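Researcher: Structure prediction, please.
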Amino acid sequence: MLISNLYLIAAAELAALLIGVCVFLLVQNRSLSKLVKRLRERLAELIDDLRHAHAHSKAAEESAADGTYIKHLDRHIALTKKHHKSLEPGPEIVLDLDPDAPSPRRVAALRYMLLLAEKEACGTEKTNWKVLERKYEQLLAFNTTYGSPSGAESDSSEIDTLREELVAAKKRINNLERFRALYFDLEDKWENSRDTAEQQFNELAELTAELEGASGAEALLKGYQKNYLELGRLIENGVDGASLMGERRTDSNASEVSHLRAVAADQHRIINELQRKLQEAKTVEQTQQIVNDLQGQLQKQIRFVQESETCIQLLEDELNTANKENEQLKSRLSQVPNLKLQMKELRDKNNEYEIKLHTLQVDNHRLNARKPPATGANGEEVQRLKKEISDLETKYAELEEKFLDLKI
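Model: Predicted structure follows.
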């Protein structure tokens, strides 16, 4: 009986122990299931993040490759232009496709045009083969027809005309430089003559102080000096106005300033003459005669100053105009970044229009060189080409003007 009770107690304890172990295992299993679930969710998130990162990295590599290729083309375009400039002097790089051009310059021009076409075609994600086809057709047509005799003669005459215009422009620039140097020379000479006049005025004042009636003569000399200084200020203002306006000074104003210069030289001569007479004067009558001469010269000086008021007004107007232009130029400083972008766009358009213009000119000369006159459909085609050439020349002139304005 006792042994059976012990067995029952041992079995009960073992059953309780097994139940406890099962409960513990169930709790651990539940916590492990939650942990596994969280790990699976985290693993799924990591897989998604890895996919997004891989896609982003691939897109970034493609974008970087495209950007690097465009930059590579820009760098080689700049190097090609630099190499073209290092060769012997000649026309622009887009004009050296002429078969008569030297071989090194022609090779540089051809490579430049090919790089431009490649850059324009690869501006997007995919290569634009239509743009490449159009650009290469223009180059092939240009090389095929450019060497015709009529086109060569026309280009030769055009080059001669451009050379004549260039010579005329250089002459105008030299004349303007000489004109500007004239004003600076006038200013320097006036400074020297004014210093000499001051010194001679002091000497005249000392001489008149030793003579009878010195107070009247001294007053006349001071009045004469005042008018002479007013003339000096007038000439200085005229020279400053010329330096501000530069090339826009008119011939009439230049003649007026030259007239003022001549009058200043004449007054300087009169001062020297009066100084000599005062040194030689020994009597009161001679001194009075010199004083009368001074009065006459002062009257002439007053009339001259009155006549110079118109010139002063013109110089003031031109000075105001120069100041307004200066303000406008200052206001345009804020537009420099936009102007640089516009200038780059205009350069690209300029190159494109030059190619089109020369291609159409060659086509036009080739059609004009045919023996039978153009009638019917051919005549309409010729008229259309002429009109297109005229439009392109107009656009080219406008672009060139805008380019010069932006560059200035």
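Model: Residues 147-151, 239-249 have pLDDT under 50 and may be disordered.
Researcher: Thanks, that helps.
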